Amino acid sequence: MIVSPINKGWKIIFHKAHALLAMDIGLKLNRALWPLPKYWAAGMESIGEHDNGQPKWKDRNNLTESGAPLDYRQRKEVDLDQAKAVARSAKYKSSFIVLMVCAHFQRLYGESKELTVQQFLEDMNTSCSKILVNLNLQKENVSQCYEFLRFCDDLSLALCQNDFENHKEPIQIEPIAGGEKFSLRKFPNGDFLIDPWIFEQDEVIFHAEYFTTTTDFYNKDEDLKNDLDLLHPSEKTFLFKKRGI
Q: Is the pTM of this model over 0.85?
């Protein structure tokens, strides 16, 4: 969950909604940045699938010690069960998606000292080496596809987390295929600009659903779940315009 405080309660964007926003971003990017047209659909699916398997409402798994909703950045341990579930699901859909989620897990958990996590990553890398041979793919092209996914993920997170509200300077996002970093700005009128421009169209609009709670603190996950009206989400809108229009 991506959790932000509001006057009473919390605003919550679930990671599945963040991933859907990331996929929408990918669908609107300049397709020349995607080096493997054959795997375009699988690539977009991997962007939308990379954060699947959340949340699990059990005990106090989604609460802080004080009982507030737990933001993902506050988690101290790797949720290996969730990672394994994503990898397992991908195997039944597309071996290319396995390559993408493996690269993502390596980015997220590569520095972990947990032996079980390192073994999981090693097993994933072994599988990916076999997939590369089986699909006759070049590692460089696959790496650029992952950088495409990573950019979509980073931009979606920056929007969902309101990163631009907490920084006076533009948000910097790593490039996809080398070159300069991207700068994300939000103007006083609410419009966004990313520079250099990376979308196919001169103006694009994105949406992300979120929920608000009516209580600040909870005793257990079930209490938080019951406080969320999942049938009536609110919506955030992000309008991007190319410079000069």
A: yes
